[in-house]
């Protein structure tokens, strides 16, 4: 039973448009049959009908397939399914699927769709709960809709639902991310009026919010308030404040706060995230000497740098043109065993490409390969893409084959295959193009639509008609 047949019954007072893509199917025929049968009798209250079919086994791929299909045919229906799915037991939307929903449903471009949804729940007298609203609030947060999130929060009592601390936190975080810290502060004050109290998430959101707009004193002032309410500052709260202080370049105060965290000990003791955040902030400001001081202090305290620390430091000193210092650092951390050679050199290659030192990046990349290192997928993708952008398709293909021998291609950007194949075809490298095309078929790597015409035309001329047929069948 296809999804197309379901959209005829799951309508949201919007006429479905004819889709140009192939029909996606439910995981089982029986589920489709059940939906059809039930929706014929109750076409309006989608949630009630879906609930009658529970339990439905959900996962991210399943939800993604359905919302993709319905975003093309019936946006509001897809949105209602998405909200319903996020409220089901044994399944929770992750950040990826929230961002995907924002994109498919064009939430940022049309925020009114959120308020229309809430109004529809009210008109149809849908049975919704606090968790339903939290899914909506998380969607608002993912879409950057702070004002709409606040309106949704204020609508909850109309459904006889009392907002809890989690609901308030979602809106407060959205407001802080928008930069509206005064309204967020006011909302935090309102919590006490309904016997709710801010928790660590509330305070950390406010600390970050004040720091983001440069109101550091107000961020500092929250710490004694937290303690009075029995919410004692921990490493997360201190690190949020420290990050703000570092970003505004108040070096002396940053080291004072770091010392204070050490003195407090316990749950306030700085961790690798704390130190890495400081290093990253100082490097971004060109304060590599201060960043080095943090790195040394970190090691003295017995906190080993991780891959993110190494990447932040490598990026910072690369930006300042101190390449020799980069190699010295890599040797230092690799010897101590906290970060691998491959991770360090991958970060270096990515950074060199970003600062347009492509020749140096390629030398570094090839040196890493010849030394038996395994660059990560980002470094591999960026390096091959950069070579292709210079129209050096044979070089790109040879590097592709070298990387393939190391086993690093499993997570490489699949766009690279189409870009490289199109370039080989255009430049008349028939043998290499056919080899790459066959490799794509073996790996089930689909052609990207923008490159199909160029690739098909040339491959046919190379005598690969059967190859073309198979490749086209996997076009995305």
Automatic annotation (TrEMBL):
Q: Which GO molecular function, any one, fits this protein according to its record? A: mRNA binding
Q: Does the keyword Cytoplasm apply?
A: no
Alphabetized UniProt keyword annotations? Repeat
Highest taxon listed in the record's lineage: Eukaryota
Q: Where are the PPR repeats?
A: 129-163, 164-198, 199-233, 234-268, 271-305, 341-375, 413-447
- The keyword Repeat is annotated on this UniProt entry: yes
Any one Pfam family match given in the protein's UniProt record, by short name = PPR
State the family it belongs to: Belongs to the PPR family. P subfamily.
Per its record, how is this protein called by name? Answer: Pentatricopeptide repeat-containing protein
């Amino acid at each position: 039973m296809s999804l197309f047949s379901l959209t005829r019954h799951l309508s949201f007072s919007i006429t479905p448009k004819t889709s140009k893509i192939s029909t996606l199917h439910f995981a089982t025929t029986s589920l489709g049959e059940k939906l059809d049968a039930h929706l014929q009798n109750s076409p309006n209250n989608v949630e009630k009908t879906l609930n009658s079919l529970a339990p439905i086994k959900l996962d991210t791929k399943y939800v993604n397939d359905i919302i993709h299909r319905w975003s093309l045919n019936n946006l509001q229906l897809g949105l209602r399914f998405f909200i319903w799915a996020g409220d089901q037991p044994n399944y929770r939307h992750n950040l990826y699927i929230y961002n995907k929903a924002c994109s498919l449903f064009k939430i940022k471009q049309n925020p009114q769709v959120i308020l229309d949804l809430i109004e529809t729940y009210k008109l149809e007298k849908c049975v919704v709960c606090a968790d339903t609203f939290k899914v909506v609030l998380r969607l608002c947060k993912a879409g950057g809709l702070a004002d709409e999130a606040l309106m949704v929060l204020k609508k909850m009592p109309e459904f006889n639902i009392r907002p809890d601390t989690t609901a308030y936190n979602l809106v407060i975080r959205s407001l802080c991310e928008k930069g509206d810290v005064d309204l967020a502060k006011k909302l935090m004050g309102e919590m006490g009026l309904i016997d709710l109290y801010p928790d660590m998430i509330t305070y950390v959101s406010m600390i970050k919010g004040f720091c983001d707009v440069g109101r550091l004193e107000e961020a500092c002032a929250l710490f004694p308030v937290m303690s009075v309410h029995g919410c004692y500052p921990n490493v997360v709260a201190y690190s949020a404040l420290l990050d703000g202080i570092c970003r505004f370049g108040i070096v002396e105060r940053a080291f004072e706060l770091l010392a204070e965290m050490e003195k407090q000990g316990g749950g306030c003791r700085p961790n690798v995230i704390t130190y890495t955040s400081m290093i990253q902030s100082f490097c971004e400001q060109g304060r590599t000497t201060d960043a080095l001081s943090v790195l040394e202090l970190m090691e003295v305290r017995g906190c080993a740098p991780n891959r993110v620390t190494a990447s932040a430091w490598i990026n910072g000193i690369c930006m300042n043109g101190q390449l020799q210092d980069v190699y010295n650092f890599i040797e230092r951390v690799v010897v101590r065993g906290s970060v691998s050679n491959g991770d360090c050199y991958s970060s270096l290659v990515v950074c060199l490409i970003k600062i347009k030192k492509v020749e140096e990046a390629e030398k570094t990349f090839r040196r890493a390969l010849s030394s038996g290192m395994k660059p990560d997928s980002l470094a591999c993708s960026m390096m091959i893409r950069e070579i292709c952008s210079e129209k050096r398709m044979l070089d790109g293909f040879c590097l592709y084959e070298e990387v393939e021998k190391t086993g690093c291609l499993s997570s490489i950007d699949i766009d690279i295959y189409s870009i490289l194949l199109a370039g080989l075809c255009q430049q008349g490298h028939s043998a290499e193009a056919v080899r790459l095309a066959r490799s794509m078929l073996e790996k089930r790597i689909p052609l990207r639509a923008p490159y199909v015409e160029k690739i098909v035309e040339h491959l046919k001329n190379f005598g690969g008609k059967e190859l073309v047929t198979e490749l086209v069948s996997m076009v995305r």
